[in-house]
Amino acid sequence: MASRPQGHRARKRFGQNFLRDTGIISRLVRAIGARSGERLVEIGPGQGALTEPLLESAGGHLDVIELDRDLIPGLRVQFFDKPGFVIHEGDALKVDFRELRGDGPALRVVGNLPYNISTPLISYLLQAGDAVADMHFMLQKEVVERLAAPPGGGERGRLSVLAQYYCAVESLFVVPPEAFVPQPKVESAIVRLTPHAERPHVALDEALLFDLVREAFGQRRKTLRNNLKGRLDAATLESLGIDPARRPQTLSVAEFVHIANHLAAGGQPS
Questions:
Q1: Which residues have CB under 8 Å from 264's CB, separation 6+?
Q2: Of 195, 228, 245, which one is at a domain's C-terminal end?
Q3: Do 98 and 229 have their domain in common?
Q4: 21 and 151, same domain (yes or no)
Q5: Which of 2, 7, 123, 260 is 20 to 30 A from 267, alpha carbon to alpha carbon?
Q6: Residue ranges making up the domain that contains 54
Q7: Can you give the pTM of this predicted structure?
Q8: If DSSP codes are grouped into helix, strand and coil, which group holds residue 70?
Q9: Contact by Cβ (8 Å): 60, 84
Q10: How many domains, in total, are found in the chain?
């Protein structure tokens, strides 16, 4: 397991909490189950605690994306003898994952993501198409709960619908604060996101679908009748088999797609 670079302190602006628990690291590596020849990408390798076992499991080939330039020299020194270790310095939100994949196998993306970038980064990766084979992320526990939330759950929101439209979502296990240095004030959890080989529900216009979902969750305590009144009226919702008195968190992905496809096919707003 990687040692801490001398003099480096976790930076609040990067949301850094370095994983140190070897038992958690081993459990995560087993859950990923990487095999030689697969294309792994680690976002935010930090001090390399997870990087080393990932390199071993992937047969010595690993791309890492690190934003904190102060950590990069230590990573270069630590893995200087690994020709398959490639560092990409910069923001993962600016990486073209389709270009990174190239003509090779789809990417298996792994990362311990800080809270401040987790939602935009996951949203970005979900739209990378067939460039990504799957994702394993360590996130704040409540974010994992939102990703996996079924219809009707209090945690369900826009991110739930977006993730479940593109992927099968599995919450794997909880990681306690003491597994990190410094210790965060909240629990973390591991989530696996596996893009659907064939989407069970296909939107005719994905941009329209996600606009619709955003509007539906604009005010969670209000009904669809109120939140979607700029899109369609209560009678139209009823004609689609959806009670306009329902709240957005009760709808399945299939129901949101059904409404969006009605609008995309020429259904008229109120």
A1: 203, 204, 205, 208
A2: 195
A3: no
A4: yes
A5: 123
A6: 12-195
A7: 0.89
A8: coil
A9: yes
A10: 2
Q: Are 199 and 32 in contact (CB under 8 A)?
A: no
- CB proximity list for 235: less than 8 A, separation 6 or greater: none
C-alpha angle 140/144/147, rounded to 5°? 140
Say yes or no: 73 and 186 in one domain: yes
Name the token pair of 50: 């997870």
Output the domain CATH number for residue 217.
1.10.8.100
Extract the tokens encoding 222: 């209000």
The answer to whether residue 191 is domain-embedded is yes
Residue of 228, 234, 233 lying closest to 212 (CA atoms): 228
**Does 6 map to a domain?**
no
Mean pLDDT per segment of 10 residues, for the chain of length 270 residues? 41 60 93 92 92 90 93 93 94 96 96 86 92 96 95 92 96 93 88 95 96 93 93 95 97 98 79
Q: How far apart are CA 27 and CA 267, in angstroms?
A: 49
197: Cβ–Cβ under 8 A, 6 or more apart, which residues? none
